Amino acid sequence: MDDGSTNSQELDASGKANFDSIYTADTPQPYLNVMRQLDYRIPTEAQAYIEHLVSRYSAAHPNQQEVHVLDIGTSYGINGALLKWNLSLVDFCDHYLTDGYSDLPLAQRDLHNQQLCLGRSPRSNIKVIGLDISKPALDFGLETGLLDHSVCVDLEKHSADDTQAEQIKQSDCLISTGCLGYVSEVSLRKIIELCAPNKPWMAHCLLRMFPLEPYRKLFESCGYRVWLSDEILPQRRFASAEEKKQVLDSLHQQGIDTTGYESGDYLWARVFYVVPDDLPDESWKFSVGLKNEQ
Ligand SMILES: C[S@@+](CC[C@H](N)C(=O)[O-])C[C@H]1O[C@@H](n2cnc3c(N)ncnc32)[C@H](O)[C@@H]1O
């Protein structure tokens, strides 16, 4: 996959293409190359929802100077770029997919990395904590300023150590794009327990092939309420005919109608909000396209 080819794509256990090798490079170039080829767009599609979450959280906590947003499966920090630096995915790709970037000597590459945010003012009231299993991706996010803090841990398999727990505990909001599926309710439970008695508010994107139910069960058992958006968002193109077949099989086995969605060229996702269950309903009523699927 490092060459950006998506032809002989290996599939993971869920039937989705396996991109592990591009998540751990020192630069985001291999990741962006492949994702641009597949029109990966979920961070952009989810942006308004994430903004909505953070602005609703801020409005409900007017005395809080800073909002700490934990981006789970943050990778190279693209959500941080969008949320904190007002950059677009196109800006990000244009900056790193320039000819010769990966051939630059290390010092020049560092300089180029830092130039992404040059001349821009970050939203200083937002602190982004990136959580991922890829140290190179997190280091890149810190170096560029897209992330304020990083936590490198696989909570599917391990517990957070004391330092990681301290970072996670700061979280006011949890967000994720393109990583639920890799990240199950096992990790989310650990994060919720570390944050207790605080209850971070959340917005997550979930591919339609992955059932919401295990996540919903966890959240409801922890005193949360789940609000599922009506809108269905394109995540990316299928990486191969084989991936499409596996995904369609999985969706059809779950009784999901794929007409107009996965029957075409793209994988599709839904966004859900998770908020404390004692929050008045009115908080979310004005949101266009939201319905409570209790
Ligand atoms: C498709 S990328 C999404 C990256 C980013 N959120 C975006 O939308 O651009 C999935 C990310 O999940 C990360 N990941 C995989 N397993 C994980 C785990 N158990 N815990 C945290 N992150 C994980 C990968 O390293 C990768 O960076």
Can you walk through the features of this model?
By secondary structure, this protein is of the alpha/beta class. The chain has a single domain, classed as Rossmann fold (3-Layer(aba) Sandwich), CATH 3.40.50. 37% of the residues lie in helices and 19% in strands. It contains eleven helices and eight strands. It has helices spanning 29-37, 42-60, 78-85, 89-96, 106-115, 135-144, 162-169, 185-195, 213-221, 241-253, 282-285; strands at residues 67-72, 126-132, 149-152, 173-176, 201-207, 224-237, 266-276, 290-291. An eight-stranded mixed beta sheet has the order 3-2-1-4-5-7-6-8, sandwiched between helices. Strand 4, helix 8 and strand 5 form a beta-alpha-beta unit. Helix 2 packs across helix 3. The longest helix has 19 residues, at 42-60. It is globular and about 50 Å long. It binds S-adenosylmethionine.
